[in-house]
Design goal:
- The protein is 50% helix and 23% strand.
- The protein is of the alpha+beta class.
- It has two domains: 213 residues, no CATH class; 99 residues, PDZ domain (Pdz3 Domain, Roll).
- It has a four-stranded antiparallel beta sheet with strand order 6-5-7-8.
């Protein structure tokens, strides 16, 4: 299957799951859904089934569900029929709006679970480099040592080691058992707050012992281990994307790093060439990205609609029609601007 077809398939699945979240909760609350579309523009395929028109449209860059009494292009349009979105309480509307992003997080969680159950590569438990005069070096650790356990907690991959050190109390001793030339040795290491740089290039202080990984290992987990792996990876990727957006707004991450549909297509295509594990990892990351971005408080996104409903919930009145229309137009301007920026960066990056 060509990379372009894989890109369309992955993107369509992610959009379908997102919109299915909205659709399912809307139908649970009795709201009529007129349209469920994958893509925008002219319809390529359309089927009317159980009160909803299910469609695949020409432009495959998103999708939407059109509920009775809710119209993104005309936010002031409402319906007071009993099967309308408009007559629901703000709380129920918020549940419907949250269901789309939540579905993306759930999908990512399951994709990570599948990855955890399959053979995949992770940083192993062997030390590649011990920084001289660091806590690890002073404690006796050396290059090439394979960490077996810390404080009787088994270490299989590098992330196990990182979690233990991070959870360790300040100035608490770490009893680290290592394999050195087929001999097991135990050393006492006391972590220190050391200066380092995070993935955004910012200087920060973090509790460390002064070692870096030295190998990559192939690993798979049992069912319960995969559940833990899926949860950890979903939380980790969600936090990473939230932080990335924050750094972008602060100007720490330059706007030239914003990618568009071409970047997404290339990443998915490259991952599909590498194998199913890489494809699942990328699909999970993009699914989390889709969930996070839709929670942003930008009118025209789910987060913007949630913001309006929270306002109504707190004030007991809806925003005025003029405010709704102006903010929605502003939201579309922001979204289109981001899409243009991403496309511009992609063209500079790949052409």
């Amino acid at each position: 299957m060509s990379g372009f077809l894989v890109f369309l398939l992955v993107l369509s699945v992610l959009v379908f799951v997102h919109e299915l979240g909205h659709f399912s909760v809307a139908r649970y609350f009795g709201v009529t859904v007129h349209q469920f579309s994958i893509g925008f523009g002219p319809k390529l395929v359309s089927k009317y089934w159980k009160g909803t028109n299910w469609s695949i449209s020409l432009i495959p860059l998103g999708g939407y569900v059109q509920m009775k009494g809710q119209e993104d292009l005309d936010p002031a349009k409402t319906s007071m029929d009993k099967d309308s979105y408009s007559v629901l309480t703000p709380t129920k509307r918020i549940f419907i709006l949250l269901a789309g992003p939540f579905a993306n997080f759930i999908l990512a969680f399951f994709l990570y679970i599948f990855v955890g159950m399959m053979e995949h590569n992770e940083l192993g438990n062997q030390i590649g480099k011990v920084i001289k005069d660091s806590p690890a070096y002073s404690g006796g650790l050396r290059d090439g040592d394979k960490v077996i356990s810390i404080n009787d907690n088994q270490v299989v991959v590098w992330s196990d080691l990182q979690k233990i050190i991070k959870a360790d109390q300040e100035d608490e001793r770490l009893y680290m058992t290592v394999d050195r030339n087929s001999t097991q040795l135990t050393f006492v290491v006391i972590p220190k707050m050391l200066e380092t740089k995070n993935i955004f290039g910012e200087v920060e202080y973090r509790k460390m012992i002064g070692i870096s990984p030295g190998n990559i290992t192939s690993i798979s987990y049992d069912f319960f281990g995969s559940l833990a792996y899926g949860w950890d990876k979903t939380v980790e990727s969600s936090m990473l994307i939230f932080q990335g957006l924050q750094k972008l707004l602060q100007g720490i991450v330059p706007s030239s790093e914003v990618g568009g549909v071409i970047s997404i297509g290339k990443v998915i295509s490259d991952a599909s060439d590498t194998g199913i594990v890489s494809l699942f990892l990328i699909a999970a990351l993009i699914s989390v990205n889709l969930g996070v971005l839709n929670l942003l408080p930008i009118p025209a996104l789910d987060g913007g609609h949630i913001m309006f409903n929270i306002y109504e919930l707190l004030t007991k009145r809806k925003p005025s029609e003029k405010v709704l229309i102006n903010l929605t137009i502003g939201g579309w301007v922001i979204l289109i601007g981001l899409m243009v920026l991403g496309l511009y960066n992609d063209i500079n990056r790949f052409f």
